[in-house]
Write a structure and sequence with these properties.
With about 300 residues, this protein is mainly alpha-helical. It is built from 10 helices and 2 strands, in the order αααβαβαααααα. Helices cover about 65% and strands about 5% of the residues.
Length: about 300
C-alpha cells in the first residue's frame, strides 16, 4: 500500500527521492502513533474526568503525529528544494537521470512539531508546577525553534545556517528551562514528582539534542538520503512521543493534579461549593474563583493557592 501511495501521489520531476524503505518505515511509525493514541485515550477512562489532563495532552501528541506520518507515508506534504551541497550519490542528491540538485523536504513534519512539541513541553512544565508566564514563554521559544528549522530547510543558500543558529539559540533556552528551572520547581513538590519529572525531562532534552544532528545531516547538509532521514526522524519521534508518553503517564498514576496546582472542576460540581471549600481552607473564601470545567491554573512551589 505504501508503494502504491508513492505512485498515486507521485510528483512531476524534478523532485527528491522517497524510496520504499522510507515509505514502509513511515507507515510503521504511523501505526505505532495510532495504536498509542488509542491506548492513551483508553487509559484516560480509568481516571476521573478531573484527573485526565495528562492523558488528553499525551494522546493529542501521538494523534497529531499519526496524521503527519500518514501524510508522509502517502508522499504528501513535501516539496522539492534545491540543495546547497550537491552529492555524487543520486539517492542523496535527487532523482537520478532527472535533476540531481533537488531534495524533498517534508514540511508536514514541521507542522506536526509546531503542534506536538508545545504539548510535550506542557506535559513537562505542568508536571513541574511551573507558572503560566514561564510556560508560555518557553512554548514561544519552542515555536521559534521549529519555525526557524522549517525556514532553514526551505532555503537553498547558506542562509539556512543562520536560521539553524536562531533555532539552536531558542532550543538552548528551552533546555535550560526544562533541565534547571523546572527541575527545581518539581523537586519542591515531592520526591515522586521530582523523580518522574527528572526521568521525562532528561529523556526529552537528550532526544531533542539529536534532532539538530538529524537536520544537519538531511535538510541542512544533504549528507544522508531522504530514506535514511525518514528512519532517523521516525526513531526519534517514537522515542520522544509514545515512549515519553508511556513513561509520563506511568509516573502520574498516583499523583493528584491538585499537588501540581491543577484544581479542575467537573461540570456536574457546584462551583460555589467547590471554590468556596477550597478558598475557605486557605482563608480566602471571599476572593475565591471558579471557572469552567477543564480550565487549569498551574502553580508554583506552593501550588494549592490556585483554584479552578
Amino acid at each position: 500500500m505504501a508503494n502504491d501511495a508513492l505512485n498515486v501521489n507521485s510528483h512531476p520531476p524534478p523532485h527528491g527521492v522517497n524510496g520504499a524503505t522510507s515509505a514502509i518505515g513511515i507507515t510503521a511509525v504511523c501505526a505505532i502513533m495510532t495504536f498509542t493514541t488509542l491506548v492513551f485515550m483508553g487509559l484516560s477512562f480509568t481516571k476521573p474526568r478531573t484527573h485526565r489532563i495528562f492523558h488528553y495532552i499525551t494522546a493529542a501528541i501521538t494523534m497529531v503525529a499519526a496524521i503527519a506520518y500518514f501524510t508522509m507515508g502517502a508522499d504528501l506534504g513535501q516539496t522539492p528544494i534545491p540543495v546547497e551541497f550537491e552529492r555524487s550519490n543520486p539517492k542523496v542528491s535527487g532523482t537520478a537521470g532527472v535533476d540531481n540538485q533537488n531534495r524533498e523536504i517534508f514540511y508536514v513534519r514541521y507542522i506536526d512539531w509546531t503542534i506536538t512539541t508545545p504539548l510535550l513541553l506542557l506535559d513537562l512544565l505542568l508536571t513541574a508546577g511551573m507558572p503560566w508566564p514561564t510556560i508560555l514563554y518557553t512554548i514561544l521559544l519552542d515555536e521559534i525553534m521549529i519555525i526557524t528549522g522549517l525556514i532553514g530547510a526551505l532555503v537553498q543558500s547558506s542562509y539556512k545556517w543562520a536560521y539553524f543558529a536562531f533555532g539552536m539559540a531558542a532550543f538552548l533556552w528551552v533546555a535550560y528551562t526544562v533541565t534547571y528551572v523546572a527541575r527545581k520547581h518539581a523537586s519542591s513538590l515531592g520526591a515522586d514528582i521530582s523523580r518522574i519529572y527528572l526521568y521525562c525531562g532528561v529523556w526529552t532534552i537528550f532526544l531533542w539534542f539529536l534532532y539538530p544532528i538529524a537536520w544537519g545531516l538531511s535538510e541542512g547538509g544533504n549528507v544522508i538520503a531522504p530514506d535514511s532521514e525518514a528512519i532517523f526522524y521516525g526513531i526519534l519521534d517514537i522515542m520522544a512521543k509514545p515512549v515519553f508518553g508511556a513513561l509520563l503517564l506511568w509516573g502520574h498514576r498516583n499523583i493528584e493534579p491538585a499537588r501540581l496546582g491543577l484544581h479542575i472542576r467537573d461540570y456536574d460540581e457546584d462551583p460555589a461549593t467547590t471554590g468556596g471549600a477550597h478558598a475557605a481552607h486557605h482563608g480566602e473564601k471571599g476572593n475565591s474563583r471558579a471557572f469552567a470545567s477543564d480550565s487549569v491554573t498551574p502553580g508554583t512551589a506552593t501550588p494549592a493557592t490556585n483554584t479552578v
